[in-house]
Design brief:
Elements: E1 5-10, H1 14-26, E2 29-34, H2 37-41, E3 49-55, H3 63-72, E4 79-83, H4 88-97, E5 101-104, H5 109-120
Parallel strand pairs: 1-2, 1-3, 3-4, 4-5
Length: 125
């Protein structure tokens, strides 16, 4: 029996959450979805997560700030940032925060699945 990896998805757009949840399920990943960074950070532990997909521009706390809060909590899960605002400033801020991948919206299903596979590959070693 293969243990499916759990991917956290944080976005304030319900349609994006549903779409990513369906896509990842089709590719044998389990997902946990959160409508805000605050809801995600309220999770009690992060060790069981294979990675997190964070929208940078959320209604409350930004995805960048969520990443910083994870670092403060010593959570080492890989982060995939996604954003509809692809500017040099946003990319530089994401680089400084640390990430496994950066996906400007719109991105293809293949791009997202490949990013998740690369981010979680370390768990197969």
């Amino acid at each position: 029996m293969t243990v499916r990896q759990i991917i956290a998805v944080v976005d304030d757009e319900p349609g994006i959450l549903r779409g990513i949840e369906r896509l990842l399920s089709h590719h044998d990943f389990d997902t946990e979805v959160y409508g805000s960074g605050e809801a995600f950070l309220a999770r009690s532990e992060f060790a069981r997560l294979a990675c997190a997909i964070l929208d940078i521009h959320l209604g409350g706390m930004s995805g960048i700030e969520v990443r910083r809060q994870l670092a403060v909590r010593n959570a080492t899960l890989p982060i995939i940032f996604m954003t509809a605002v692809d500017s040099r400033a946003v990319r530089n801020e994401a680089i400084r925060a640390g990430h496994a991948a950066f996906l400007p919206k719109p991105f293809s299903a293949e791009e997202l699945v490949n990013a998740v596979r690369q981010a979680t590959a370390r768990l197969h070693i």
